[in-house]
Amino acid sequence: MKPCADRESLLQAMLDGELDAAHAIEAEKHVRTCAGCAEYLNTMQQLRTRLEEADLNTPAPPRVRAKVEAMLEREQRAARPKWWSRLSLGLPAVSALAAAAAAFAVMTIVPAQTADLENQLVSSHVRSLQADHLIDVATSDRHVVKPWFNGKIDFAPPVPDLAGEGFPLQGGRLDYAGRKTIAAVVYKRRAHVINLFVLPHEDAGRIDAHRDSYSIVQWRQGDLDFWAVSDVERGDLVMFRDAFQAATR
Predict the structure, then answer these.
(1) Across all residues in the chain, what is the average pLDDT?
(2) Which of 22, 24, 83, 192 is a plausible cystine mate for 232, CB 3.0–4.6 Å?
(3) 16: left (phi over 0), alpha (psi -120 to 50) or beta
């Protein structure tokens, strides 16, 4: 099944995290209704994941390494002033080390850098509030929200009822970050929205931060990472995390 010809560039930009809020929402809506584009995006995501996970740091053969080192050494000698050339004659080990380091930098294939997940999730939180894409399934019933994710993502996010702790459930939606489709479970704290993003564990470490007027609390449970993002006070978001962990143990 082929993607829409006029949407391929949009999907590529979506995959690279290069879309602004309006175009990201346009792409998300289209993917949800177009099987060809959804299949294309999923294939490209899988391909990118395989390339990132592949061991591409293959060392160069000794003969190639020796030629590169010799070439770099000749270029360095030609570029040095005479006083440095005289000095380097007494420091052969330093010269060799510098050449080897330069050769290693040239011959090592640097794997693709992962996106800044924290920035992506804050942007997703802001976009959900501004573009009328906060909730795909709107209900306070956890028994409706939790099974709604079945078949849409390859993991099952926990969806506890935290109304008794002051964080009523609002619903859930699919979102996109870290080059994959993730779950967003939506809660409220008084008039404030809490987006809880759930995705497979990625060794992100534990984050408790405050940036751009938004609080961020991140934690891990089992094989899943949880990122809570909101404009509530950080203390409220920590209370939310503690209540969530207590309800899902």
Answers:
(1) 78
(2) 192
(3) alpha
Residue 85, CA distances (Å) to 96, 101, 103, 129 in order: 13, 19, 20, 63
What is the distance between the alpha carbons of residues 183 and 124, in angstroms, rounded to a whole number?
A: 12
What angle is formed at CA 242 by the lines to CA 238 and CA 244, rounded to 5 degrees? 115
The tokens of 182 are what?
């993730």
Bridge-based pairing state of the strands 137-138 and 224-230: unpaired
pTM beyond 0.70: the answer is no
Span 92-113, pLDDT tens digits: 545 555 544 544 444 433 333 3
> Which CATH architecture describes the domain 117-248?
2-Layer Sandwich (3.30)
3 by Cβ neighbours in 10 Å (0-12 / 13-18 / 19+) ranks as buried
Amino acid at 73: E
Dmax over CA atoms of the chain, in Å, equals 79
The contacts of residue 248 (CB under 8 Å, 6+ apart) are: 158, 160, 221
Give the per-residue pLDDT at 235: 92
